[in-house]
Specification:
Blueprint (H helix, E strand, L loop, with lengths): L2 H4 L4 H7 L1 H11 L2 E6 L7 E4 L7 H7 L12 H7 L5 E5 L2 E10 L2 E11 L6 H12 L8 H10 L9 H18 L3 H18 L5 H6 L18 H7 L7 E7 L9 H19 L6 E5 L3 E6 L7 H23 L3 E5 L10 H13 L7 E3 L7 H21 L5 H16 L3 H20 L7 H16 L3 H19 L4 H18 L6 H8 L3 H12 L3 H19 L4 H7 L5 H12 L3 H8 L3
Parallel strand pairs: 9-10
Antiparallel strand pairs: 1-2, 1-5, 3-4, 4-5, 6-8, 6-9, 7-8
Helix pairs in contact: 2-8, 3-9, 8-9, 12-13, 15-16, 15-17, 16-17, 17-18, 17-19, 18-19, 18-20, 20-22
Length: about 600
């Protein structure tokens, strides 16, 4: 029987019209939420879809991870967790919430919402989740794992007072679906939205609206009336319209432990905590600056004189610098834009604050203002062309003295010229990289397929970069690789060869994979192949193969009744006894026991 026959007549009208419940999901926690009927084969009704581009579920689909949704309709499981509250079920280190919908003791369906983290996301947390999902170690060199890390860092974290507020939100809505909208439920949901969720999560579009960036929904014109809006005062926590933008980023430290992925996690933690720190500064709110820093918007007291207002902004900047330096455990740089008149668009102040970071990074200061350049657009383009010609010369002569300074000047000019248009930045950098690529091709013996694919791969890395910071880093890394290539290091050829070996293993792991054949096809010895593979991915070839086979076997054991002997054979193990022995060593249980234990997970 369909869930629509169970629930009250106004349930689905309320489902799409109940503003206070939906606003919590839409503007703050950004989680999927479904109404699931008691019969799993019946139609699920979507209450809210998350706005993030990807989630854990996308990786589960790709890896054919099998969920056991029987818990949604299992009365014994429900009773074991206690009635009248949302049940949390862990999956790959993250959680889904199930809220039973009841009327007169009869269960009519379930609210399903997730996935979320119940504590701050750490790098070891992501490594463990990846291994549980794929059966493979989490190697930072693996592009898919890097993508997984970036996606999962966007997963909402419901910790502290947020988790019980979330449970209560689901409970209130479950009552609304059965009994209809009640003023008391409406009032309580509003309290939770203002008193809990808005204090722990950035509003979904507020910061972009303020900075003049694209938003998820239509917004009114930015102007003085913004500060008169009650929800701005209640949820954003400011009483006067912001007039100044400040930005902050960590500065790289020589010798700092941890790679780029761990740095990404560290910055994301800073962004989460920095949002709440901003609320401790009067008339200030904060948000993420792409994936590499934070942006704050504030306003000095308009009743004070010009010099006093400037001093007040400098005090705010110093508080941000001190906090960020402590939180990131290292030096930081704060960029400060000019203060605009109340009600004027903030995009100019934002542009200046971000450009100050990129242009004054090597100034030796920790608080910097943007210094405008007198050049117009036409002169700027001519200067950019001149700098590109200067940058090409070392690649044509194979003499790289002073290249680092030229590279910084070129990037500075690109950012100055095209900051407000990320696609224009991408076009400038793509053109520059193509010019440098052509200069390199003139110095390398042509005709090898690997060389062509490697050079195209550098251009593709820039195409795939999503943010301004990623574009700048991709360009710098590509220039460095071109320098290594022309100096004869051969590192790029090695990388391409090892990537092809890994692709071959990913496709053929179910069968026999002789290392001698792989090495011969790669034009190197078995020992060299093994050494390069371990250097690139952190584990040996045999271990990598066994992890692939183990991951496949676990999925087959979870998802069906195929005999263990068939699973061992189909996954590439040489015998059932070896498979059983290996499986017990890796998981602590036999394949048969594992199948029983995971049958209802």
């Amino acid at each position: 029987m369909e869930v629509t026959e169970h629930l009250g007549p106004d349930a689905f009208r309320e489902l799409f019209e109940y503003e206070n419940f939906l606003s919590i999901f839409k503007y703050y926690i950004d989680l999927n939420c479904f109404v699931v009927p008691t019969s799993l084969g019946a139609f699920w009704v979507a209450v809210n879809y998350h706005q993030r581009q990807a989630s854990l579920f996308d990786f589960e689909l790709k890896r054919k991870y099998i969920h056991d949704w029987s818990r949604l309709t299992d009365p014994d499981y429900e009773k074991s967790r206690g009635p009248g509250e949302a049940l949390l079920v862990e999956n790959l280190g993250f959680f889904d919430a199930f809220m039973p919908i009841r009327r007169d003791g009869q269960r009519l369906g379930t609210l399903l919402s997730g996935a979320f983290a119940d504590r701050e996301i750490t790098f070891p947390h992501l490594q463990a989740s990846w291994k549980d999902l794929t059966g493979q170690p989490a190697a930072p060199e693996n592009p898919e794992f890097r993508h997984f890390v970036r996606v999962m860092l966007e997963t909402p974290v419901l910790e502290g007072p947020v988790l019980p507020a979330y449970r209560e939100t689901l409970e209130l809505f479950a009552g609304i679906l059965v009994h209809g909208n009640h003023p008391e439920a409406s009032r309580r949901l509003k309290e939770l939205s203002v008193g809990v969720f808005s204090k722990h999560f950035p509003h979904s579009y507020w910061m972009n609206w303020a900075l003049g960036l694209p938003t998820r929904q239509s917004t009114p014109a930015w102007g003085p009336r913004v500060q008169e809006m009650p929800w701005v005062r209640e949820e954003i926590g400011i009483t006067r319209i912001p007039t100044t933008v400040l930005t902050v980023i960590p500065l790289r430290q020589a010798g700092r432990k941890g790679g780029a992925l761990e740095e990404t996690v560290r910055v994301h933690r800073f962004q989460r905590r920095g949002f709440q720190f901003a609320r401790t500064i009067p008339e200030t709110t904060g948000g993420a600056l792409e994936n590499y820093g934070m942006v704050f918007i504030s306003s000095p007291d308009p009743r004070k004189g010009r010099l006093q207002r400037r001093h007040q902004i400098l005090e705010t900047a110093e508080r941000i610098r001190a906090y960020a330096s402590e939180e990131l455990d290292g030096p930081v740089l704060v960029g400060i834009g000019e203060t605009v008149e109340p009600g004027e668009p903030l995009n100019r102040s934002f542009r200046q604050a971000v450009l100050a970071l990129h242009l004054e990074r090597k100034s030796g200061k920790d608080l910097v203002f943007y210094a405008p350049t007198p050049r117009g657009k036409k002169e700027g383009v001519l200067e950019l062309a001149r700098l590109l010609q200067e940058l090409k010369r070392p690649f044509e002569t194979a003499s790289f003295s002073g290249t680092s300074t030229l590279l910084d000047e070129y990037l500075r000019q690109v950012l100055t010229l095209s900051f407000q248009d990320p696609e224009e930045i991408r076009l400038h950098l793509q053109y520059g990289l193509l010019q440098l690529r052509d200069a390199v091709k003139g110095k390398i013996h042509p005709g090898t397929e690997d060389l062509e694919s490697l050079l195209e791969g550098l251009v593709r890395s820039l195409v795939n970069a999503g943010t301004t910071q990623e574009m700048v880093l991709a360009f710098k890394e590509s220039v460095e690789k071109l320098m290594n290539l022309i100096q004869g290091s051969g590192s790029l050829r090695e990388a391409a060869s090892i990537e092809k070996v890994r692709d071959f293993l990913d496709e053929r792991f179910r069968g026999s994979v002789p290392l001698s054949v792989l090495a011969k096809n790669s034009g190197i010895s078995v020992s060299t192949l093994s050494r390069r593979f371990k250097k690139a991915f952190g584990i040996g070839i045999e271990t990598y193969l066994q992890n692939l086979r183990l991951g496949e076997a676990r999925q087959l054991l979870k998802g069906g009744n195929l005999p263990v002997s068939k699973i061992a054979q189909s996954c590439g193990f040489r015998s059932v006894s070896y498979f059983t022995q290996f499986f017990r060593k890796k998981t602590g249980s036999t394949p048969q026991t594992y199948r029983k234990q995971t049958k209802h997970q």
